[in-house]
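User: Is it possible to get a 3D structure for a protein together with its bound compound? The compound here is zinc ion. I've pasted both below.
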Amino acid sequence: MSFNRRRFVLSCAATSSIALVALSGTATAQSSFVSGSSGLFSSDSTPAAPEAPKNIIYMIGDGMGFNHVSATNLYETGQTRYQVAGEPGAVEALPGGEAVQVYEQSEWTQIAASSYQDGNSYDPARAWSDHNYVNENATDSAAAGTAMATGVKTTNGIIGMDPALQPVQNTSEYAIAQGKAAGVVSSVPFNHATPSAWAAHNSNRNDLHAIGEEMINSDLNVIMGAGHPFYDQDAKPVATADEDYMLTSQYERLANGETEFTFVEDEADFQALADGNVSSDKYFGLTQVADTLQHDRSGESVTPYDTPQNDVVDLATMSEAALNILNQDEDGFQVMIEGGAIDWAGHANDEARDIEEVQAFNAAVETVVEWVEENSSWEETLVIVTADHETGYLAGPTDDPAWSAMTGAAGVVPNHNWFSGNHTNQLVPMFVRGTGSEDIVAAADEIDPVRGKYIDNVEVAQITMNKWW
Ligand SMILES: [Zn+2]
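Assistant: Yes, that's possible. Here is the predicted structure of the complex:
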């Protein structure tokens, strides 16, 4: 499937020195629920498997490039995947160890995704022949989120609009128009760029109070995130409001029941929703912490968890709560769940907290998988686990000019280096599972010599709106 985008034809001349190594698990389509039974001589009457997912759970590790996954694998198990080594022009993917992370099990199909903003592109040949190529003009989370939410490329800083500032429909709105439910969940402020892209339209991602107002007045069924005006970075109450993300007046309207949302903020209330005690079809959950659940808490981290964690709800619990709310709609739902502070750790070049954030995101993925198997099925639900871009140019210690691998052992921060304090234009990993996976894999029709098949970040939304729904 191809939607009005530049076709890349891999040039033999340009890539002849680049090892064509397929990573284990790359683009291995899982088809058990597609090819399944049937056959001419089958006597069973199993109905044909659905071609379109009823529910879409789009999980985004903000800034979570391949090496962020690798570093967490190294820390957890001493083994890794997805790493590369070699001189520019002769880079190869290294074979991985046996250990896998939650979303790398055999049930998942792994591809890659390009993330570039409007006006840029991704050239595989250049990406692996010039160490600095991926630093050029990389996307931000506003442009990437908009691309993933709407199927339309835009310019950095823009939420839910095309480069000419015309509003474009997102898959939350599309789902609601189809009679489905929709929601956004994040470990960073509820109106940060990634959740905003599934909920708002604004030429400026930093117009936070207006974006927040649009979200509070929206038709979404679930909005959950940080950004509480009356709590600090350590999840302690403060008397004077910090209105960076939410105005006191907005908080009061939510808390006093003056909006259509049922409002929750206590950890126990999120837990009750996660336990299935749902009494409304529309919830706003504001976590009792300032900017993000854990990343900005006090203390310098040398190793993961070496400073006390905030006593605040975690992303896994928020995710389960959101799914229980959305699943009340018999027509299905669309939800975006973001591990938002992987990106923040990448900007800070803080490997200990990067690992913490990837682990918290993985825990949310694991919870989502369990939820699907207990409350839905892979026949009716599609889960996508990906990133909006890579942050920090995380890699092995001596990557300039040659790429090298991170090394390490279980329980140890890997031997690594950061080559940027910003985003990069690298391909990011994408793992898919459930009905609809085949369509995504089929759309991943461009080939990177190291990462294998890749899709562009606008394509899942396009398939959602043009084919499935
Ligand atoms: Zn960022």
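Residues 1-44 have pLDDT under 50 and may be disordered. Residues 199 and 215 are 6 Å apart (CA to CA).
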